[in-house]
User: What shape does this take?
Amino acid sequence: MTEEIIIAGFGGQGVLSMGKILAYGGLMQGQEVSWMPSYGPEMRGGTANVTVILSDERISSPILSQFDTAIILNQQSLDKFEKSVKPGGLLLYDPNGITRHPVRTDIHIYRVEAAAEAARSGMAKTFNMIVLGAFLKLKPIVKMENMEKGLAKSLPMRHHKLIPANMDAIRKGMELVEAVSVLV
Amino acid sequence: MKELRLMKGNEAIAEAAIRAGADAYFGYPITPQSEVIEYLMAEKPHERTGMVVLQAESEVAAINMVYGAAACGKRAMTSSSSPGISLKQEGISYIAGAELPCLILNVVRGGPGLGTIQPSQSDYFQATKGGGHGDYRLIVLAPASVQEMYDFVKLSFDLAFKYRNPVMILSDGVIGQMMEKVEIGEQYPRLTNEQIDELYPWATTGKKPGKDRRIITSLELDPGRQEQHNLKLQAKYKKMQEEEVRYEALNCEDAEYLLVAFGSSARICQKAMDLGRAKGLKIGLLRPITLFPFPSKILHELATKVKGMLTVEMNAGQMVEDVRLAVCGKVKVEHYGRFGGMIPSPAEVLHALETKIIGG
Assistant: This one.
């Protein structure tokens, strides 16, 4: 199994930490993982993206131009990465703020109202975990117990009290994800 | 079970330095390698092993602190990125001239000048051909994974002390910034002053009664003696070329076409090779791990077996010159590069191989 993922959105949405928690989850179940951020003069409100690869084998390139899954959290990223999903691959996005929706017909497209749910619940910081939950529902490549271990490894000790809330957010994302257009 | 961590390349270097029993790190922050000093400062190694971590007032100060510590037989290191490494060149030349061991990490970014902060490999010439003034060489190691960033720190110190020569780890923004799984090794103890005195008869540990003074210098006003010193250095570099060449050969047994790449470019080439092999193209990959000494012999051998070679570098074509020297005109050697912080994709590399070598 090899899963090549791009996660892209605004800086401050938790794009990089979502990738890190997913990578740690993979590490916890003995997989090879890589996490490669687009680093630069990025700031809150600017764009941020990270390439995460989980594999049972040695990972070759940490830099890719085609992905099995694109997790998209803003319009700029949708415009940039919709074309980068492999045919038959998955595009998962949060429709919040999206005015031009995905149009490809050769990939699976799903959406999750994560920003709306985070606002409704008053837990804005769990936004990225809701998105991650939606992804894990569609591609259960990391077991929930390993996600919990990954969270524990990824979060500093002083934030460990937030692990249950983050796990709840992952489960909420699993409930909320909905199909937009799915290949048969 | 060994301890596994998810770490950035820069963090792995820092943890490895503590574990290798390093005595001192002197540095000055610069993207994309500031995590090295950040990690060391947060980790407080003076509490773990007694290792000194100091942010100097400049890169020039940092390399001269390394020079001083190395003269005392201490395991000292510094790290920077391209513009900062240029500033350190005078000190590196002095350290090479004085035959002192140390570790210098360059996490390369796009140049020239202040350039960009994105990954590049455009400091190959600077690292492998001297860099500073005078006829000297560094041992240059090119890690292609976060694990190698970790592993090469101990290796660098071992080689540096074996040859009394500075060692450079030539990395780049990809390997420095990415996170991968790292197997953390054991904690090696720092040497005591008594051990240093015994192991390194050149180290300036304080004049003892009845013993000769130990003098560390890179200055010699007598040209005859300086020539002898140069000949000694050259003999040392020749020994490195005979004994320290390291490389990784992937799918070279049946390869008709060979990719040659180091560091993060080699990772991208590995994917390009897989994509090509899936199309039935017999592609191999030769990854130099030591850039000096360069793996010329294996390339010379492969030149009679393959139909063409393509070097892939994030520069305008630097290592390609060493590959061409190694194959001596026996086979076509072309270069494909992106520069200024741009990173080639695996598909781009395969396309370059198909157009420049296979179809060319």
Summary: DSSP finds six helices and seven strands in chain A. The beta strands of chain A are 2-10, 32-37, 47-55, 67-72, 85-93, 108-111, 178-181. Chain A touches chain B at residues 20, 23-24, 27, 32-37, 39-41, 59-66, 153-154 (CB under 8 Å). Chain A has a mean pLDDT of 95.
